[in-house]
Structure formats: C-alpha cells, structure tokens
Amino acid sequence: LLPEDYCADIHERLVLYKRLANCETPDELDAMHEELIDRFGLPPEPARCLLETHRLRIESKAFGISRIDAGPESLILQFIPNPPVDPAKIIKLVQTRKGYKLSGPDRLRIEAAMPDIAARATKLRALFKDLS
C-alpha cells in the first residue's frame, strides 16, 4: 500500500489505487510511477512493491493468468478458460520441475522459498519466460 507518510490524504490514496488498477500497459504504469515521483518524491519500499505487483498483473495477462496468489512458500496461478499458452509447456514444467504441480484444471501451484516480493517477482518472470 501507499504509506500515509508518503501520501497523507486517504481520498487521494484511494484515487491512486483505482488509477493503478486501471493501468493496462507497462507504459501507463510507467507514467503513473513518474507521476508519483513528481507529486510525492521517490516511492518508499511499500509503494515500490505496489507498483511491482501491478506490473506483474499486467505481464500475466499475456499468458491468460487471471489471478496470482503469492506467498513466502508458494505461488498459485489461476488461468482463464482456454489461455493463450500451449498446455504442453505447462505439463512439461509440472513433469520436469520440482515444486510445480497442477492444482485443478486451471491452476498451477509452484512451491518454493520466496521470502519477499523480489523473489516472487523473479520466480513469476522465470515462469513467464518458460511459457513464452
């Protein structure tokens, strides 16, 4: 979240959250990042995490991922029906990678130690590369 000492007005924070959620491209998100810097200064760690989360949301859409639940020990990815990803690639990952499991017909679970958002983002981007 955006810390109170970074953006003090709660109404303004809510508007910014809505605008971030409406960013559909990396360029729109970059423009929001620049606006945050212009208006409030360099973002603190929680704000950088928020921006990174939105960047991953945008990147995941290209793979038909509709939801990502990321924790310190696992990632669970929910795919849309008929995602634009070759199912054989997902099956190959499950068969060849430790910690990769199907969790229902439209979910992929990845079990790994990911203590912070940087580790989770790295794991997700590696997955995106594998699915490309």
Span between termini = 31 Å
Strand composition percent: 15-25%
Q: What is the ordering of alpha helices and beta strands?
A: HHHEEHEEH
Classify the helix fraction into a percent range. Answer: 40-55%
Give, in spatial order, the strands making up the sheet with the most strands.
1-2-4-3
Mean pLDDT value = 94
The value of Rg in angstroms is: 16 Å
- Based on CA inertia axes, which overall geometry fits? elongated
Number of strands: 4
Secondary-structure content class = alpha+beta
Main β-sheet: number of strands, strand sense, barrel status?
4 strands, antiparallel
Low-confidence regions: none
Number of helices: 5
Overview of this protein structure:
This protein is an alpha+beta fold and 132 residues long. Helices cover 52% and strands 15% of the residues. The protein has helices spanning 10-21, 26-40, 45-61, 87-96, 117-131, and strands at 65-70, 74-79, 100-102, 107-111. Strands 1-2-4-3 form a four-stranded antiparallel beta sheet. Helix 3 runs parallel beside helix 5. The longest helix is centred in the middle third of the chain and has 17 residues, at 45-61. The protein starts with 9 loop residues before the first helix and ends with a helix.
Compact overview of the structure:
Helices cover 52% and strands 15% of the residues. It is built from five helices and four strands.
